[in-house]
Specification:
Elements lengths: L5 E4 L4 E4 L7 E6 L10 H19 L3 E6 L17 H9 L3 H18 L15 H13 L3 E4 L2 E4 L1 H5 L12 H7 L15 E6 L15 E3 L3 H11 L3 E7 L3 H16 L4 E7 L2 E3 L2 E2 L10 H6 L11 H9 L7 E2 L2 H21 L14 H19 L4 H19 L5 H23 L10 H17 L3 H12 L3 E6 L2 E6 L2
Parallel strand pairs: 3-4, 3-9, 9-10, 11-13
Antiparallel strand pairs: 1-2, 5-6, 6-7, 7-8, 11-12, 14-15
């Protein structure tokens, strides 16, 4: 019997059978990056996690609208309601306009995601492009009596809301405990309560990123954009809300509070959170200064690295652990991931060369076939168990053993029979390439190959092996490359 997809819902703290609100359509919203710096490993884990969710839901036949936002305004330092806007601060440091910073780091993020083979979301809206929607939400919250304006800023009244709703339902935190552990910040006097959060902030005279509003010129609070954007493109409620576990509180908790006031519902049915990457047992993150950018990883320029590691090695490294578990970063783990990735790709290359010969007599081994079907079923079962890519990869390595047996002649295709043989090929290829999104990366550059051929050409000439000389010339000419023998040595040029 085919298993059903189950997902772990942070809201209910249990695994649930996935039942979309409006099948076959699925709406998924994932919190995207704040674009004030280069993407790092934490960004990669969230993006890869929900890329696999996106891919697998599409594989199951769902029509998925995947929305991932770009935060380009309103995200203040330390995720607080006071301090400098992260993008405005970076613009000041680089002596650029804030939107120049936004454009540069958004482009950089997208290039890194493409290298990681992360599919583009269906819609990628920005916070600054949805100011009108955010102001509209604030006005509705104020009419409901759950927000108040002070000196041109607007705050959400958490304690008043909690009398009607339940602030903390997602994170499991209690208001009393939060109040006990809250430290008063120097500039929070204008708030009525220490847990209240900004819906709109008055812009200081030097604040460049500002928009007109009923409360004066300012900018929206960080939490508001996701509520407004999610509702606009996915409706209320939608199916899946995703993001890193570090966003669970207060960001996602505040999203729920805002949306319940305006739309009278929790914005999403299922809440999925990927866990953190750790280094030496500590969370890796930009705020802690112990992060590694993707550029540094791909070029091997960080002092924690011994060499460069490719995008697909990183993707495999991420997927060999379940997305809800912490992922410990180390050179040893990256090296193991590199070996594992290359084994999978070697299997994929071998698989594409395997052909079932129809006219060969069959000699099916039922035990071998039964085990192969169990491994194929287990790939699906693992993904249906809350997108467990770690178990899926383990099953793919079992299938890889059969592929290597076929490659080396230790197992005949006829021992499997045509149906099982084709299922082996299809399952391995689909799960590696389409669901896990792992692809082959060229190991040799064209320049390196050409350099090798030139070396062989020179050696053949010196040894007067003119048949090899002519063969190399002809092979390169077939690729539009002409060899030139000169007094200073051998060079090449494009054929015109």
């Amino acid at each position: 019997m085919k298993s059903q997809l189950k997902v772990y819902n942070t809201l209910t703290r249990q695994k649930e059978v996935f039942k979309p609100l409006h099948p076959p359509r699925v709406g998924m919203y994932v919190c995207g990056p704040t674009v004030y710096g280069k993407a790092h490993l934490g960004h990669a884990r969230s993006a890869i996690t929900f890329d696999v969710v996106f891919r697998y839901l599409k594989y199951l036949g769902y029509q998925v609208r995947y929305v991932r936002n770009i935060t380009d305004v309103g995200h203040l330092e330390r995720d607080a309601d006071e301090g400098e806007d992260k993008i405005a601060k970076q613009a000041r440091l680089e002596q650029l306009e804030p939107m120049e910073v936004v454009r540069y780091y958004t482009d950089s993020y997208r290039k890194d995601m493409a290298r990681l083979n992360v599919l583009q979301p269906s819609i990628e809206p920005s916070a600054s492009g949805h100011i009108i929607e955010q102001i509209g939400m604030i006005e509705q919250i104020m009419r409901a009596g759950l927000a108040y304006e002070v000196n041109g800023s607007v705050y959400f009244d958490v304690e008043k809301y909690n009398k009607q709703g339940h602030y903390g339902k997602l994170s499991g935190r209690m208001i009393a405990d939060l109040l006990t552990g809250t430290r008063a910040l120097a500039k929070q006097q204008e708030k009525r309560g220490p847990l209240d959060f900004a819906l709109w902030k008055k812009a200081t005279p030097t604040h460049i990123m500002r928009w007109p509003s009923p409360w004066g010129e300012g900018f929206p609070g960080w939490h508001l954009e996701c509520s407004a954007i999610g509702a606009k493109y996915l409706g209320q409620p939608f199916d899946i809300h995703g993001g890193g576990i570090d966003l669970l509180f207060p960001h996602h908790e505040c999203e729920i509070a805002q949306s319940q006031v305006v739309y009278h519902t929790v914005p999403a049915k299922y809440w999925l959170h990927n866990n953190l990457i750790t280094i030496d047992g500590q969370k890796m993150g930009k705020s802690l200064g112990n992060f590694i950018t993707l550029e540094q990883l791909f070029q091997g320029t960080h002092n924690l690295l011994d060499q460069a590691y490719s995008p697909m090695v990183l993707r495999f490294f991420m997927l060999q652990a379940h997305y809800r578990g912490t992922l410990a970063f180390s050179i040893e783990a990256l090296e193991a991931a590199k070996r594992g990735y290359l084994k999978l790709i070697n299997g994929l290359r071998a698989l594409k060369k395997l052909v079932y010969t129809e006219d060969t007599p069959t000699n099916v081994d039922e035990k071998v076939v039964e085990q192969l079907h169990r491994n194929c079923d287990a790939c699906h079962d693992a993904m249906n168990d809350d997108f467990n890519t770690a178990k899926t990869i383990a099953q793919l390595f079992d299938l890889l053993k059969r592929i290597n047996d076929l490659k080396h002649g230790n197992l005949e295709a006829t021992t499997l029979g045509k149906e099982a043989f084709e299922r082996l090929k299809n399952t391995y290829k689909i799960f590696v390439e389409e669901i896990l999104g792992i692809k082959e990366e060229p190991r040799l550059s064209p320049e390196a190959l050409l350099h090798t051929l030139l070396k062989l050409y020179r050696e053949a000439k010196e040894q007067k092996q003119y048949d090899r000389v002519d063969a190399i010339r002809a092979a390169l000419k077939g690729q539009g490359i002409i060899l030139q023998d000169m007094k200073t040595g051998v060079d090449w040029t494009y054929e015109v």
